[in-house]
Design brief:
heterodimer, A: mainly alpha, Rna Polymerase Sigma Factor, Chain: A, Arc Repressor Mutant, subunit A, 8 helices, 2 strands, about 70% helix, globular, B: alpha+beta, 2 domains, 5-stranded antiparallel beta sheet
Chain lengths: ~170, ~260
Amino acid sequence: MLRVKGVRSVVPFGTDETIYSQVVTEYSSMLLRLACTRLGSTVDAEDAVQETFLRLLTARPAFRDREHEKAWLIRTTLQRASDIRRKAERKRSVPLEAVAETAAPDKDGELLSAVRALPEKYSAPVHLHYYEGYSIKEIAKLLGLPAATVGTRLARGRERLRQMLKEEER
Amino acid sequence: MNQDDYRRAFDTLSFSADFQERTADLLQKRARELEKECDKMTFGKTKKLAVLIAACIALLAVSVSAAVMLLSPSEVAVEAGQPLLAEAFQNPDAISINETVESGEFSITMLGLVSGKNLDVLNQNLDAAHTYAVLALRCLDGTPLENQTFDFMRYTMTPLVSGCAPTAVNNWTLNATAQGIAVDGVYYYLLDTESIEMFADRTVYMAFYEGMAPNNDIFTLAEDGSISFTEDFEGVQALFTLPLDPAKADPDAADAFIADTGLTG
């Protein structure tokens, strides 16, 4: 396999301001939905993605290519979303299940709830495969994991989702 | 569940209509603030440095370059917002190098490195170990290097492995990212790559040079496997040998990695 040897790209610090709009336009939609695999609130997802972009600005990582940049954004978004979720769980007094019950979700809502209920290590591969259409090999590169691990997590995540949705139907 | 069901469920999510505009504005505002903060800091620090240098010349008769104190790798990690990494650099497993090469207008110091899992606060879910290396760059004439003006992309910091073509094992194939931070006129590179410990039974180098991806115009691979800069390469250059622990080598993983690159020469 020939890997990219060529040009690095980087979001320059304090230079052309239009680059921020370009990065935000290009990645927001994907990152917001990805954050929602870990967060029940779209407002929290927006916070996670905004923090990710701010981190990109202040950390100024240098990227090998666009895929590398995308992988960094995906991993950072997932990490930020996990942080927000953990903080919220520490504060929450009402159990998650109780909230879910009162919401009485429809079929789409059930699926979203099921994805969020997955262990984090399963939900990211599931989402990147089912929503973004990435192959196992591509997901492995994006998440920095061996392809075999991604394959296993995807299969287990899919199976757990299937079971959860089956239980919902009963 | 099929892909259509999944996509439809996630497409029902609705986000703020002005999210993108708001976020781009926030980034632009923050970028301007950072620019101002850096200007202020540089001004203040330059004055302090001038006083320090004057005092050194008058009282201690030491050179300007010797008066510049370098941050430790741990302090660089703190500056980079990486507390776990900062801690790791203080562990006995961390390797301190502190070797300096002068090339072109620069003094290039390889400070140290550390390898381990989950040391990056942003990538806590990584299963694989990474290697983090810190290098310091300063101008020989004492001109401070600054975030705003230093051309980070002009230089490359990359591991190389003896016996392996520089095109096969390098920053790019090791999925490395580099971060640059200027502190008190010294520019620090913090490199994060897939762990290079698997190559520890070979000579492993850290190269810093003017240019992009390694190629045969920049490096030469001798018959005994050693790597050096080509005689014709005139850019800024430094090549450090990393004292890795051979006991940590994983020859099978190293061979698999090289085979996976599909690049041998």
